[in-house]
Amino acid sequence: MNPKMKPETTPGQPGYIAHAEHTALELPTPLILRYTPNERSNHWVTAITFVLLALSGLALFHPSMSWLAALFGGGQWTRILHPFAGVVMFVSFAFLVLRFWHHNLLEPGDVQWLKQIDDVLANREEKLPPVGRYNAGQKLLFFTLIICMLGLLLSGFVIWRAYFAFYFPIPLIRAAALLHAICAFVLIMGIIIHIYAGLWIKGSMGAMVRGSVTYGWARKHHPRWFNDVVKKK
Ligand code: HEM
């Protein structure tokens, strides 16, 4: 091991790890903690229920995808399980929103970041306004997800035949079915972009799997957040 990298346990020394929020942790390697275990569990419950919902929803949506129902024990079970899984995803996502909303508020530099989207796509990050904990793209996706989730929840209750649909007139049920499909489409597209971005920016998956990121990752992709964390040290 390089002696210069030898972990220290005192604040202010190399190897001392500041928590992204307000506490400080000591870890054996120079990493920054980006997500706590609770935040990660919350995220992955949301992600797993999302995948189950996308597959079961597509099975219900069109006969060409009805073969997916076999994954859930057949058509009847798919129809029974899908709305309950939807409620689990909504509740889990609501906790995620409560944890992260204050990091996703738009700031003046965000508009400039969006105007320079060509620099973002060409990896010219040094030309962009310094990004905080999340960039403008992540923030816009965050609010798109909230709108889709609310649309899915409300329309989902209206079309939930077993318990609620008989309270509503048929034209409203039809409109709700359309809204449900539109929100699901936007959500699935949004999450495909979200996963692609997570894979594209090397080191981001580690943030959501292990919880930590390297100093280099933080300084390159989120320099303002990095400075905040280092200052707190
Ligand atoms: C299905 C596979 C998914 C993968 C591989 C994935 C991956 C990731 C990664 C790598 C991050 C960390 C990004 C960073 O720290 O900069 C993240 C953050 C996040 N993810 Fe996911 N995710 C998935 C699904 C979802 C779903 C279904 C939702 C909600 C509907 C979601 C909501 C979030 C939120 C809210 C954040 C924090 C970013 C913010 O607040 O703007 N993710 N995800």
TrEMBL record:
One Pfam family it belongs to: Ni_hydr_CYTB
This protein's UniProt keywords: Cell membrane, Electron transport, Heme, Iron, Membrane, Metal-binding, Transmembrane, Transmembrane helix, Transport
Transmembrane segments: 44-61, 81-101, 140-163, 175-201
Residue stretches making up the Cytochrome b561 bacterial/Ni-hydrogenase domain: 34-203
Named cofactor requirement(s): heme
GO cellular component: formate dehydrogenase complex; plasma membrane
BP GO annotations: anaerobic respiration; formate oxidation; respiratory electron transport chain
InterPro entries in UniProt: Cyt_b561_bac/Ni-Hgenase (IPR011577), Di-haem_cyt_TM (IPR016174), FDH_cytochrome_b556_subunit (IPR051817), Formate_DH_gsu (IPR006471)
Main location: membrane
Positions in coiled-coil regions: none
Recorded topology in the membrane: Multi-pass membrane protein
Gene3D superfamilies xref list: Transmembrane di-heme cytochromes, Chain C
Gene Ontology molecular function: electron transfer activity; formate dehydrogenase (NAD+) activity; formate dehydrogenase (quinone) activity; metal ion binding
Subcellular location: Cell membrane
PANTHER family the UniProt entry points to: FORMATE DEHYDROGENASE, NITRATE-INDUCIBLE, CYTOCHROME B556 FDN SUBUNIT, FORMATE DEHYDROGENASE, NITRATE-INDUCIBLE, CYTOCHROME B556(FDN) SUBUNIT
Family statement: Belongs to the formate dehydrogenase gamma subunit family.
Protein name as it appears in the record: Formate dehydrogenase subunit gamma
